Each structure stands twice: as C-alpha cells, then as structure tokens.
Amino acid sequence: MLDWKENRMTLTFHTRLKELSPAEEKLLSDYALLMTRAERTLFTLHQRTDKPPASFKKEVMARFGITARQFNAIRYKLEGKIRAQKESRKERIKGLEAQIRATEKAVREAEEAFRGAKEKGNRSRARSLRGKLVGKKRRLDILRTKFQNLQLEEERGRVSLCFGGRKLFLAQYHLQANGFPSHEAWLAEWRRARSDGFFLLGSGDETNGNQTATLLEEEDGTFTLRLRLPGQPRRGYLGALGGGHLRLKSLRFPYGGKRLDELLKIHEAKKKGEKGPALSYRFQRKAKGWYLFVTVDLPDAVIVTDRKRGAVGLDLNPEGIALVETDRHGNPVYRTFFHLPLQDKTKGQTKALILDTAKAIVSHARAVGKPIVLERLVFSVKKAELRDRSPGYARMLSSFAYNLMEGAIRARALKEGVEVIAVNPAWTSLLGRAKYQVRYGLSVHESAALVIARRGLGLREELPERPVCRTREGYLFCPWRPGGKRVGQSKAWTLKELKGILQLTTSQPPRKRGAWRPMRRSRRGTEVSPRALPWSGPPGPVVPSLTVGDGRASAVK
Questions:
Q1: Which helix (H) or strand (E) element contains residue 128?
Q2: pTM (2 decimals)?
Q3: Residue pair 320/405 in contact by the 8 Å Cβ criterion
Q4: Is residue 199 part of a domain?
Q5: Domain-located, residue 476
C-alpha cells in the first residue's frame, strides 16, 4: 500500500471516452459551456475591479448554479492562467532586451560597413548596405515599441487573456486563407474552441478524492466515473443541465490503472476524519472526441542513490548527452556518449529519442547507486538573438531541446528514486579540456561531464601550472603565464587567459605545408605564434581503468 503522506509527485493519466452516446456528449458539451462562461465572467469581474477572484464566489455560484467546489476549480484554473501570463511576460521582456542589444550591435556594424563602402566609392555595395541598415533600424524601432508596451503592462500589473486562442481570433479577418467559407462558420468554430473542456478540483477529505467526480472500480477491472451535474443557473444559460449525475462506464486507463486502483483502496481503508490522496479531473474535447485526464498525487520513490559512492555527470549539448561516472574521490570509472540526431526530426520523433535516452541514463545511475549531476542552463536569451546570428549557429541552437532533455531526465529520476543535483555551468568545458581531456583520453563533452560530476560532489577545481590541451594539430603544453599577478605560490594561468590562448591556437584555418602563418596578439599584448608553442604527444598513457560504454546501443533498443 502506498504511503501518500510522504513527499509527493504529481502524475497525470488519461483515457479516451470512446463509448459516449449523443445525449452524454451533449451533457459534457453543456457542462463545458457553463464552466467556461463562468470562468470568463470571473476574469471580467477581476479585471474590472482589481479584486481577487475569490471575492466573487457567492455571486458566480448564484449566477451559474454551481457548487463551492466547482467554483474553486474555476478559480484555481483562472489563477493558474494569470500566473502563467505574468511569468511569460517577464520572459518576453528579457527576450526583447536581448533582441534589442543584438539588433543595436547589428546596426552599428552595418553603419560602419556602409561608411567604409562609401569612402571606398563602392556604390553597389553601399546601396546594398543602406537597404540592410534601413531594415535593421525599422526592426529596432518595432522591438523598442514592444518592449515599452510590455513594461507598461508589467507596471500596471494587468494581464490580457484570449479565451479560444489569439490565432483563431485573428482568422476571422482572413476567412478564405484559414479555410472558413463564411463568418458564420468561423463563429461556430470560435464558440466551440472557447468551450472545449472543464476542470474539476479534488480534495483529500472528499469521497474518493473528489466530490464532483467520483471514480469507482468495477469487478471486471474497468472504472466508472460518477459526474455531478450543475444545477439550473439564474440567467444566461442555454444548455439542458439541471442537476443530477452522469455515469461514464467502462473506462480503461492504458497506463496508471493499477496506481488508480491503489489510491482508491487508500480511500476505502481510511477512517473518519482522515485525508486521502486528491484526484482532479480534466475533460478535454479534441478532434477525435472527449478525453479524460486524471491528476493524482503519488509518493516519491525512496532515494536509492548515495553521493558517497560517487556521481554520474551529464553534459547536455546539441549533438547528444555525454555521461561520465566517477568514484567517491572524483576519478572517472565509466564514460559513454548518447547520440541524439534531433535536427530535421518531428516533434514526436524528438520526444521519443530523448525519452529513450533518459530511461537508459537513469537506469544506469540507479544500477550503480550514484546521483545524477546536471548543469543549470538557460537558453531563452540566446535563442532570442538568433535572428542576428549565423544560420549554422541558429540551426544548432534551435534544434537543442535542452528543456525537454532535462525534464525527461528529472521525471524519470523522480520515479526511480535517483537524486538529481544541479550545479553552476561556469567554465566546465574549459576546465575539463585543460585538466582531464588529455589525461584520461576524453572528448570535450566527456571532460566537461567529468567536471560537472566532480562539482556535484563538492570537489574544487584548480588549474595546473602548465595545462595540457588537445588541439587540431596535436597536444599543447601551455607556456608559463606571461606576467601578471601570482596565483597561489606559482605563476598559473587564469581561466580567461587560458580561454584566449586556446581560441588563438584552435581557430587557425588549415593551411598547406610551408604556408606563412601570421602573428597574433593576445589580450595582454604579447605576440604569440602557434608554431612557437611547445608541441608534443600526450603527457602519459590513458588511464586503463576507464570503461567505455556504447551509449547509442543502450539508449535505443
């Protein structure tokens, strides 16, 4: 029996209501129409008076003939939409700030190029750059106007919701292009979209977790849902509801049926005054008919991993996921790479690949009894600047489904009882490249995953006096730090200086043998030539105890 009072996680199971009669479909449609009208009315009252939605409880209940629990479901759903809108607005403001910065930089570069072409007398080039400059300035004005409008809305604290969808609302102005023969056809679809579902909030102290919709198990293993219908509203109602109950029989849940059965048994065994798990229901109308979603609170699995055994570090990148397992001292013992070719994949294919990979990663972490360590990455600002970046970079970052990867790993780990640790991503790739790439024979991503795992164990990283890094031409022994402050008791490279020297030595394009290589100046003004640096082979043999795994084969079977 589950002990639901411990730490809980929320899961949702769904099923399609296949055997509905026309009368039952009519009742569900009328139910959705009534609840969505009550929701829109509650939002109007809230916007008009700036009072909290809970203050209109008696008025909305009397007007639409609903119970207090049904009103709470409407209020809960509306407050969630308002919170989501406010959070989304904050993210849009950050994105617009990034877009404005990137566009301002593009305008400056276009102005410099235009002046250079004009001074050289290149009229065709100047004419082309002038048109580009005008377009960039126009876009900059549009972005600044949007930013000012969003800031004004943020200061006022008001939100705007379009029930039914903004895309469908704007389709009325272009009927033929959107497949509507007339405005009446669009209006029918608009009304249908505005009443496409309703939500019923549950509570642990009610019968089987919900007094409005009660789920009952039958002897043949199916479920029956007893749905309480609203009473007759006071005014403005066009449906056929008038109280009573609607029974939806022969419900089967492809996934989660055993969990629901176990939760219902908890309610049967509880004593008077005790609380059980809450079950909330959402009815949604789609193209194939009505669907039922059941949201339940389940106890988290017992944590079976221990940091004293080591950690499993993950480096998430557009090419795939690098995994490196360490012992309790931070030394690598296993490595593998899960290839994820997500570019040009459909949404379903992308999700399937990521879910299979997450299952393999969490299964490995559970088998070795070690927690998973991830980076805390945010790509919203970078993705907002894609318009002014190179096509290759934009394509790479757009196909990088980091949120989906992280969410899939966290959800799977929560079910399996595997601890997930989030760490700061600063300098992980650079530290891994300077300390561990050559020493253990790792790739760039695997060396970063090793640093992430060590950081999750609380171990500190310090650069050696002379870092060794792998480049296109071989192995680089970085020279002594050229002047500056002492770090510790010896001259050592700082991270920024090391990043500059690595960019200098790895950004050289391939040249023919004997071709002249230009001198480059470092940020400190010291002239450095790539051929003047000491090159040689790796400093020592690869650690023999490091095991290599086949990530792709284990991820997708």
A1: helix 123-156
A2: 0.70
A3: no
A4: no
A5: yes
